[in-house]
Amino acid sequence: MIDIRELTVDNTSEFYSLVLESSKEVPNNFSYTYEEIKEMSTEEFTKKFLIKKSVDDFVLGAFEQEKMLGFIQLKTSKRDRLKHKGEVSKLYISSNNRGKGVAKKLLEKLIQIAKKIEGLEQLNLMVVSENIQAINLYLKCGFRIYGIEKNSMKFENIYTDALCMQLFV
Q1: What is the average pLDDT across 63-80?
Q2: Terminal CA-to-CA distance of the chain, rounded, Å?
Q3: Which of 23, 36, 76, 144 ranks highest by number of CB atoms within 10 Å?
């Protein structure tokens, strides 16, 4: 059985390992490089990824028998003009756990929690245009494409476009 729960600093080690894995395996999908993550101290990594910047920020982890299979993040804003928006990011499932519906469970749980956040009206995300599997998942969960950011990221002198997607909650 897969258990979805919010990560805490107690999950730092396992989360760090999965973030490193993700940045190495799919370098075009995340803004941090493997080297940038590897160079972070534990404290810096925890502060950057697990310490909440806003009361409604969180990272969810998917666990099976206490082993972390994947994660997803929601970031919100404290700024008055932006409180109605949340940013979904960092969806990753370890390669040997894909195809089991883990990503869908994580995304559905994030949406369920987001719907309960007072004042939150929309979820936005950007996804690399070549990541067809993720795009299809987001579409199945109700997200709609509203734009394309050309040359969104640059890795080894190759540009990657990103689709901008949105879900009203």
Answers
A1: 94
A2: 27
A3: 76
- The model scores a pTM over 0.90: yes
Amino acid at residue number 77? S
Contacts of 132 (CB under 8 A, 6+ apart): none
Q: Indicate the pairing of strand 122-128 with strand 85-93.
A: parallel
- How far apart, in whole angstroms, are the C-alpha atoms of residue 168 and residue 147? 16
Q: What is d(CA 85, CA 169) in angstroms, rounded to the nearest whole number? A: 10
Give the per-residue SS3 of 38-56: HHCCHHHHHHHHCCCCCCC
pLDDT in tens, 124-155: 999 999 999 999 999 999 999 999 999 999 88
Structural domains present in the chain: 2-120 (3.40.630.30)
Query: Per the structure block, which two tokens stand in for 162?
Result: 């990103």
**Closest residue by Cα to residue 113 from 4, 2, 30:** 4
Closest to 107 (Cα-Cα) out of 132, 56, 71, 65: 71
Tell me the DSSP string of 53-95.
SSTT-EEEEEEETTEEEEEEEEEE--SGGGTTEEEEEEEEE-G
